[in-house]
Amino acid sequence: MTKMTAGITKAETGIEGISWNILGQIYVPKQLSENSFSWHATFPVGTFVPPHIHPHQDEFLYILEGRFDFVLSGEEAYAEPGDLVRLPMGQPHGIFNRTRGEVKCLFWVAPSRRLFDLFWALHNLGPQANPAEVVAVSAKHEVDFLPPPDA
Prior knowledge:
The protein has 151 residues and is mainly beta. The protein contains 2 helices and 11 strands, in the order ββββββββββααβ. It has helices spanning 115-122, 131-140, and strands at 20-22, 25-32, 37-43, 48-53, 58-65, 68-72, 75-79, 84-87, 93-96, 103-110, 144-145. The strands form 2 sheets. The chain has a 6-stranded antiparallel beta sheet with strand order 1-2-3-10-5-8, covered by helices on one side. Strand 2 and strand 3 (37-43) form a beta hairpin.
């Protein structure tokens, strides 16, 4: 991985024209270096990231459009445009679009670790992907999904 370079990533583009479809969500990488990784995300209605932990990364979301509901260390919360969400490494969190419109935000993590590679591994698995496969691939890339709550 390289060091970050000065420059501007234009609004409608990402790194090398990359755009990932991650389980129905669109992620466009904006910056990648050893120390940090950022991407623009669009979450259609009803999409979510189940509760999980980044054991070696701090994660942040800056909400651009719409409203996200969160589970942060077991507590319910929400964020709207202009809000910054801080997700410290090792603390469980889930991200949900429970609204009637899409949500757009800027994510970033520090350090980058293996998340860029995880997104390539999950790209185009589709909304009907096998959850066990997603969990296993994610664990290999340092993202640990929590088991579902007891029913």
